[in-house]
Automatic annotation (TrEMBL):
The lineage of its organism: Eukaryota, Fungi, Dikarya, Ascomycota, Pezizomycotina. One of its GO terms (molecular function) is lipase activity. It comes from Xylaria bambusicola. Residues 1-20 form the signal peptide. GO terms for biological process: lipid catabolic process. Keywords: Signal. This is Uncharacterized protein. InterPro entries: AB_hydrolase_fold, Lipase_EstA/Esterase_EstB. Pfam families: Lipase_2. The keyword Cytoplasm does not apply.
């Protein structure tokens, strides 16, 4: 990838409390990566358990978190909400380094894609559903499109795909902020230390000229036949601008938050928690335009 891009990302990251280049000079075991209570005590923390006995008239929904987040932090609140609406939802923390296993999405995205494909097969098989839906945020949004494009047999068993702010065309800054926000300065510092010691293959692969970005650029078609793909972007997202997330293919529905909620200042991380966005997600899954939730003011970052 372009060093300039990586450097720009680091400069941006530094301003958020992360300082050093990933040097891999320290050993990961030298750092205490125990899960901090500042994170687990947050009201934004914690996802429902995967319950394969769950039954619903709707497709089961697999939820994919963003970079540096996890199944417990990011789409977890939406997951509870979808459960309340009668959906069965399932999530995993993908792409985590073994230590700590609670910070996901950093690992090689081609490996994560296989992990996610395995999980989608498991959900389909254990629930007995014909089709599975996917909702992903940030890197998880990228994976929601990348997995059906690259993993055998997935496009055929997926119906709806909803991607929130996916950096399909090359990130210049990455969706780090979800976990950092939830755990405050403490988790920000931890993610910084983790990047120092284990690096972040996914960061490079999502960047301009990164492996995954180039695979999308070279693909004859990004959205796969039979998949109903919705990309949700905010005009106020400065981390993954709308030009970076839009998939310009006739069968992809690119939706802007501000079309239904013109005054919503929601930024990249905030897409996960904003009811203006949740409405668009439910609309995509149910193929309606019902005002499921009123517009609200999402987090501006
Ligand atoms: C899992 O779902 C089934 C069916 O809805 C329910 O009876 C059971 O209590 C659930 N298990 C847990 C641990 O929530």
């Amino acid at each position: 990838m372009a060093i300039g891009t990586w450097f720009a990302a680091l400069v941006a990251a530094s301003s958020m409390g992360v300082s050093a280049l990933p040097t891999q000079s320290k050993d990961v075991r030298d750092v205490n990566f125990a899960i901090p209570s500042a994170l687990t005590s947050s009201h934004l923390y914690g996802a429902p358990a995967n319950n394969f006995s769950c039954t619903s008239s709707r497709n089961p929904v697999v939820m994919l978190h963003g970079l540096s987040a996890s199944r417990e932090v990011d789409l977890n609140l939406l997951q509870y909400e979808l459960n309340n609406r009668g959906y069965c939802t399932f999530s995993l923390t993908y792409g985590a380094h073994p230590i700590p296993s609670w910070i996901g999405g950093l690992d090689d995205m081609t490996k994560s894609a296989k992990q996610i494909a395995g999980f989608i097969h498991e959900v389909k098989q254990k629930t007995g559903a014909t089709k599975v839906d996917i909702v992903g945020h940030s890197e998880g949004g990228v994976q929601s499109i990348y997995v059906p494009m690259t993993q055998d047999g997935i496009a055929d068993i997926v119906e709806h795909i909803v991607a929130l702010g996916p950096a399909v065309h090359g990130a210049t800054y990455f969706g780090f902020t979800d976990l950092w926000y939830t755990g405050g300065d403490l988790t920000r510092a931890l993610v910084g230390q983790l990047l120092d010691v284990v690096g972040c293959p996914a960061c490079e692969q999502l960047a301009v000229d990164g492996l995954v970005t180039n695979q999308f650029t070279q693909a004859a078609k990004i959205a796969q036949p039979g998949n109903k793909v919705t990309v949700i972007g905010s005009t106020k997202d400065t981390l993954v601008p709308v030009e970076v997330s839009t998939i310009d293919e006739p069968d992809v529905n690119n939706v802007l938050v501000q079309t239904t909620c013109p005054d919503d200042p929601v930024g990249h991380a905030g897409l996960a928690w904003d009811r203006s966005v949740w409405r668009l997600i439910v609309n995509a899954l149910e193929e309606t335009d019902e005002e499921v939730y009123k517009c609200e003011q999402g987090l501006p970052f």
